[in-house]
Design goal:
The complex is a heterodimer of chains A (312) and B (988). The relative contact order of chain A is 0.12. In chain A, 76% of the residues lie in helices and 1% in strands. Chain A has a two-stranded antiparallel ribbon with strand order 1-2. Chain A has helices at 2-51, 68-75, 78-111, 115-131, 133-144, 151-158, 172-185, 190-201, 204-213, 218-229, 231-247, 250-256, 269-279, 283-308; strands at residues 54-55, 63-64. The longest helix of chain A has 50 residues, at 2-51. Chain A contains 14 helices and two strands. By secondary structure, chain B is an alpha+beta fold. In chain B, helix 2 crosses helix 7 (433-451). The chains are: A mainly alpha (312), B alpha+beta (988). The interface between A and B is medium-sized, with 33 and 32 residues.
């Protein structure tokens, strides 16, 4: 008995040491992530949430005001409700799913061709999302410039379709459409690469088996096999698209050259946050808007998870 | 593959020997044939064809004296001052008269013979003038030639001390320059100094009236005038035979930095980091040369004192560098103020390929010239000259003018849009087309022939490369002259066009940069090698490399005791500023100052939040101080008793955005101006009148637009959000205001303001001005928009980066609006940068001392000159101090317009919600022009939104409560209040 007890104690001791070591290694493994997450995500979000309950004009000390900022956001801020929210939803719906579908389709089409042209084409399609906003706006501002030197205006004028240049970047009628076009053009980002990889990774045997089971065309192939087999990549692409669409904002400002965009026609939430934070110096209010944006993104990401997550 | 050690060594040895050999046998100048100016017959013919077509005549000096023979036997004569109110000026024993801008003096002179005379006049320039003056000389009521309208009156400068003080890094800093004000004889030279000898004037036998007008700001005193025959300069052989002496033993080196005086403050010394020049230290910067970048304009002269112990003939050699690519520069050598002999007039200094060279002043066959010096002190001067290339420059300029007129003729024919599908027969409409193109080609060929003798590579010289390219273009055009309308832009507009290349060539030719280390007065002695040997160069590099580890001269240390200043400007500006502060402000007041670069002005806000702000911030945009002030982070400058008296040095309108109630929270540091700019060539050729009011602009538009041209309003520049300076000048010009006096509401719905805004939108909806212009600079060069409103930056761009337009455009006053009382209101909205003391400053009093010093006339003027002389003419500093602008190195004609326009500066007052007003007005414009909404309606809609935001902000800052009751007063101050405060010195 005693021996056994001693033995047991020993075992326990050993187990203790092992457990400690294991938990220690788990702690060490998680530490870099936790530290970075805390430092760059959790703390800033916490500070933003705290600031959203204060009046803070950057120069003086923050003053606690309770829910006032949120109340103002929903009841007082005409621009927010009249322009910013509708614009953002419209933009996000068109650019998010639109870009997403476009990315999937191009990825699927590229997967059908030989490796070398595929790589080249993939690189070309990926390029716009790499070059960044300033470059994008330089190209598109030249294309849409509101004088005879702008390419689109020059073509329209030459072919006698118009007789005075269209003010694409000044007129509120056009700015939103152009923003969406440009965003779609540059939407082949990391999500597109992930999807391309997903399609290429699909097991050939499944397709063969499916044809034996009676699939008749490529469309059915996509619906029944390609998409289900690449759900993880689809999810990744979806989350990237949603976050991207909501956090986009620079494009309208870069195209029109100013924040706010003309008559708020291209005003997105991010522009609104920048306007309040850095032009009106109302950091507290700006924080409240960014918390609202955070919630929006979280909700839509949840929906994406619901659609694509493996249910097992 | 690896090289064998022996092979490596061999290669190294070979390399080193070749470098050493190159060093021992330096560049001695390319061999040249006789340099008699070849007269190209076809060029002269070409010029003859172009003269008088399109009414372009060339009434210049060269034509004036063409065929005239210098008559050295004319009798001298004294002219009599023909005015009553002369006065005795201290230090002058004759009668004298002081002339301010536009004042003139008349002289009466009797000469015994018709002939070409030189005129010299005793003159003195007042002590506080800093930029060269210009006078206009009329003979019997007319300007004999164009050059006589702008005769230069140079100022004489000297260094305050030849002991160089060390800056905070231990490097030698440039000494202050001081003006020498003394009576002297003024020789008549045009301000381009195209001639080596003074200009001559043709006087008739008997009575002549010579009228001198001062056409620049700054007073000039004129005394007696002496009329005399042209001075005869002997030839070298005559010079030699007129002196009888031997060549005593002598060897002295006079360092270039030891000059006695110079006639331009642009001429400056510099520290050249190479052991080839003296003095040199590989660790600290020692001032050792005259910088070619500052000694490149024809007419700039620098004078040295020399002393010899015996009478005799001496040789002269210069240790110099010429980096003008593949082209010579020229200097006239004078001894005791006179040119000793003909051969050293505009003496040639060859291209040195980026190295230093010794140039023995010698004849073509390299026998050194001998200069006679009597025992004792003498002065020796070197004067930059461009006479040898001046005629080519004049011809190129003439060519540009002609091409401009010619293309305007083409434009009249092809109309608004060139029809690309049409078969053009241009020669039918302009029969001279082929003749002109051929003439252009021949003239350029002739010019190249004339110039290639000064280039070691002949016509392949880099300096002449543009001319060759222009030739190629012209040859191509001649293949099908009928089709010229399809690509006539290649002749005259923008980059790559023929005129642009000719313009660039003019700029290159005008550059006479020469770097001077010193010169030798010697006989029969071996000169020092011009370039240091390879080993001493290597040694110096090694030493300076090692010193980067051992010396800590450039380490920046936080200085707790110093006044901390952040400047939002590039380092180039700050460098000079710190030097001036060290050598003047700290020296005089004992206040230590530490200046740091602030890359982005917004950093100040963040720094303030982090409690790390400086004492003073400089170079801030005009919207910033108010944001600090209303949040209690800026220091109220009116707390200093002498604020308002100090404020008088700046434009009253510039203070408006810095005012909050009775406090002023920043001081204007720089200014901006808006004014009209137009192309003279287009306006004269098409017979347009320069508009003075907006009514004139509207009347001009139909005729402009008929030629496919238009008018540029600045609202068409920039992004989609239009700022106050773009939208609101009309409101002010119509007598409107932006805010109600208590600041609680916008007042853009008053009739005056509505008029202003409506007119602004009508310009686009009715008169179809361009709504978006990405670059007015380009549109102006391409002649699409030959008239428009420029700001300071575009003005500088056109001044410095459009050589083909030199002299083709002019500034004019900002168009105004005629008010009921008949006066024309020319208000414009602009502002420069400012300087502000932060509330958290530890030393506000010292900070104010600094601001007073920094914005003072002397310092601002000096800063403007130093910037330009250090970095070049494109670095123009438009100071907020108006007196400093008057002194500034800006073209006199432009400066007149700028000074006139600055009076009308009127920036927008700030209120907590003013950004909403700015956006609101921008949206009104956009609604009216893009959506076709009636301005009045758009204004009413926007006013409601603007007022809501203003009220919200006033509540935020505690000026009113939720019900709109006033808690504390808020007053909007206008320009009249500022003027009133300035007048009474701010006694509240």
């Amino acid at each position: 008995m005693i021996k056994r007890v001693i033995g047991k104690e020993k075992v326990v001791k050993i187990n203790n040491g092992k457990q400690k070591r294991e938990s220690m290694s788990a702690f060490l493994l998680i530490l870099p992530y936790a530290a970075i997450f805390l430092l760059f995500v959790a703390i800033p979000i916490a500070v933003a949430i705290y600031l959203s309950f204060t009046y803070f004009n950057v120069i003086e000390k923050p003053r606690f005001v309770g829910f006032l900022n949120y109340i103002n956001l929903l009841t007082q801020d005409e621009v927010f409700l009249k322009y910013v929210v509708p614009n953002t939803v419209k933009y996000a719906l068109l650019v998010g799913p639109g870009g997403y579908i476009l990315a999937f389709l191009t990825a699927w089409m590229l997967a059908q061709i030989q490796p070398i042209p595929r790589t080249i084409m993939a690189l070309i399609l990926y390029m716009p999302s790499m070059v960044g906003g300033v470059f994008t706006s330089v190209i598109w501002r030249t294309l849409f410039s509101g004088d005879e030197a702008g390419y689109i205006n020059a073509i329209l004028l030459k072919s006698d379709l118009i007789d005075t240049p269209i003010q694409f970047l000044i007129s509120p009628k056009y700015i939103m459409i152009i923003m969406i076009i440009v965003s779609l053009w540059s939407s082949m980002g990391i999500g597109f690469l992930a999807m391309l990889a997903g399609i290429l990774n699909a097991d050939e045997e499944i397709y063969e088996a499916a044809y034996i089971d009676g699939i008749r065309n490529r469309f059915q192939e996509i619906i029944y096999i390609t998409i289900p087999t690449m759900k993880p990549q689809m999810l990744f692409g979806a989350v990237m698209a949603i976050v991207g669409a909501f956090n986009a904002g620079s494009i309208g400002v870069q195209l029109s050259g100013s924040n706010p965009t003309p008559q708020n026609a291209g005003q997105l939430i991010i522009n609104h946050i920048e306007d309040y934070g850095f032009q009106r110096y109302e950091m507290g209010y700006a924080s409240a808007i960014s918390v609202a944006l955070l919630l929006l993104v979280a909700i839509f990401s949840k929906i994406a998870y619901g659609l694509f997550i493996e249910k097992d | 593959m690896r090289l064998k050690p022996s092979k490596t060594i061999a290669v190294a040895v070979l390399l080193i020997t070749s470098i050493i050999l190159y060093d021992i046998f330096p560049y001695t100048g390319a061999f040249k044939e006789a340099k008699a100016e070849k007269v190209s017959v076809s060029k002269e013919k070409g010029l003859e064809i172009l003269y008088n077509s399109y009414g372009i005549t060339k009434e210049d000096y060269a034509r004036y004296i063409l065929g005239a023979k210098a008559d050295y036997d004319l009798e001298k004569a004294e002219a009599r001052l023909n005015v009553t109110h002369t006065s005795k000026i201290h230090g002058y024993d004759g009668e004298a008269i002081g002339l301010l801008y536009d004042e003139s003096a008349e002289y009466e002179v009797y000469v015994s013979k018709d002939g070409y005379y030189q005129i010299e006049v005793d003159h003195l320039v007042d002590g506080d003038v800093l930029s060269n003056l210009t006078i206009d000389v009329k003979i019997n009521g007319v300007n004999p030639y164009a050059e006589s309208e702008t005769i230069d009156v140079p100022l004489i400068w000297e260094d305050e001390s030849k002991e160089f003080t060390l800056d905070s890094y231990g490097d030698e800093s440039l000494p202050n320059q001081r003006r020498i004000s003394r009576w002297s004889r003024l020789n008549m030279f045009n301000n381009t100094y195209d001639t080596t000898s003074p200009l001559c004037f043709k006087l008739n036998k008997g009575k002549n009236i010579i009228k001198i007008t001062n056409v620049s700001s700054g007073r000039i005193y004129l005394g007696n005038m002496h009329v005399m025959p042209p001075k005869k300069v002997p030839s070298y052989s005559d010079y030699l035979s007129s002196h009888r002496a031997n060549s005593p033993n002598e060897y002295q080196f006079i360092n270039a930095i030891s000059y006695k005086e110079k006639n331009s403050s642009y001429i400056r010394m510099n520290a050249y980091q190479s052991p080839s020049v003296t003095p040199f230290s590989s660790v600290d910067k020692k001032i050792n040369i005259i910088d070619g970048m500052g000694w490149q304009i024809s007419g700039q002269e620098i004078t040295y004192d020399i002393e010899v112990k015996e009478d005799g003939f001496y040789q002269l050699a210069l240790h110099y560098m010429n980096d003008k690519e593949d082209f010579s520069v020229f200097r006239t050598i004078k001894i005791d103020g006179d040119i000793p002999f003909e051969e050293v007039k505009a003496y040639e200094f060859e291209y040195t390929k980026g190295k230093w060279a010794n140039k023995v002043v010698s004849a073509e066959d390299s026998t050194p010239y001998k200069f006679y010096l009597s025992r004792g002190k003498h002065s020796i001067s070197f004067k930059a000259e461009n006479e040898k290339v001046a005629s080519s420059i004049a011809e190129l300029q003439f060519l540009i003018n002609h091409i401009n007129q010619f293309t305007l003729e083409i434009r009249k024919i092809v109309g608004k849009e060139v029809d690309k599908k049409r078969t053009w027969r241009l020669t039918k409409y302009i029969p001279e087309t082929e003749k002109y193109l051929k003439a252009y080609e021949n003239i350029i060929k002739g010019i190249i022939e004339n110039l290639e003798v000064y280039a070691p590579n002949g016509k392949d010289s880099t300096t002449l490369s543009y001319l060759n390219k222009a030739l190629a273009k012209l040859e191509k055009m001649q293949e099908e002259p009928d089709k010229l309308p399809l690509y006539y832009e290649q002749l005259y507009s923008g980059s790559g066009s023929v005129t642009q290349m000719l313009g660039d060539t003019i700029d290159r030719l005008n550059n006479e940069a020469l770097y001077l280390d010193g010169f030798y007065i010697y006989n029969e002695a071996e000169l020092k090698r011009p370039n240091a040997g390879i080993f001493s160069k290597l040694g110096a590099s090694a030493e300076s490399f090692i010193s980067t580890f051992t010396s800590s001269k450039y380490v920046i240390r936080e200085d707790k005791t110093a006044l901390n200043i952040w400047v939002s400007r590039p380092i180039t500006y700050i460098d000079i500023m710190q030097k001036m502060v060290d050598s003047k402000f700290t020296k005089d007041t004992g206040i230590k100052v530490k200046i740091s670069v602030m890359p982005d002005a917004n950093k100040l806000i963040l720094a303030n939040a982090a409690n790390e702000s400086p004492d003073i911030a400089i170079g801030l945009p005009s919207y910033m101080p108010y944001d600090f002030a209303i949040r209690g982070a800026a220091y109220d400058l009116t707390e200093f008793d002498d604020f308002w008296t100090t404020a008088r040095r700046a434009a009253p309108g510039a203070f408006i955005p810095y005012i909050l109630n009775d406090g002023v929270y920043a001081f204007p540091e720089t200014l901006d101006f808006h004014s009209l700019i137009y192309r003279k060539d287009v306006f004269t050729s098409l017979g347009f009148k320069v508009p003075d009011t907006w009514q004139d602009v509207v009347e001009l538009l139909p005729s402009l637009q008929r030629y496919g041209m238009n008018f540029y309003h600045p609202i068409a520049g920039g992004g989609a959000l239009k700022w106050f300076y773009q939208t609101c000048p009309f409101i002010y010009q119509n007598g409107g205001k932006l805010f109600t006096d208590d600041g609680t509401a916008a007042s853009i719905n008053t009739p005056e303001a509505v008029n202003g805004i409506s007119f602004l939108s009508q310009l686009f909806t009715i008169y179809s001005l361009p709504e978006q212009v990405p670059s007015f600079y380009n549109s102006f060069r391409y002649n699409i928009l030959p008239i428009g409103i420029v700001d300071f930056n575009t003005y500088l761009q056109l001044k410095n980066a459009a050589p083909e337009l030199k002299g083709q455009w002019e500034l004019a006053r900002y168009p105004g609006t005629k008010r009921e009382d008949g006066k024309i209101s020319r208000y414009y909205i602009a502002n420069g940068t400012n300087t502000m003391i932060l509330k958290s400053a530890k030393r506000p009093k010292k900070g104010w001392e600094f601001i007073k010093w920094w914005t003072s006339t002397d310092i601002q003027t000096e800063y403007a000159y130093r910037l330009q002389s250090t970095y070049g003419p494109q670095f123009v500093w438009l100071s907020g101090n108006i007196e400093a602008v008057k002194n500034a190195p800006i073209d006199e004609v432009d400066k007149r317009v700028i000074l006139e326009q600055i009076k009308w500066i009127n920036d927008v007052p700030r209120t907590p919600g003013q950004y909403m007003l700015e956006r609101g007005i921008s949206d009104i414009w956009s609604k009216a022009t893009q959506d076709g909404v009636v301005p009045r309606v758009a204004i009413d809609q926007q006013t409601i939104e603007i007022n809501r935001e203003i009220k919200k902000k006033l509540i935020e800052f505690g000026y009113v409560d939720e019900e709109g009751r006033k808690l504390k007063p808020y007053v909007i101050r206008d320009i009249d209040w500022v003027v009133e405060q300035m007048e009474k010195g701010g006694v509240k």
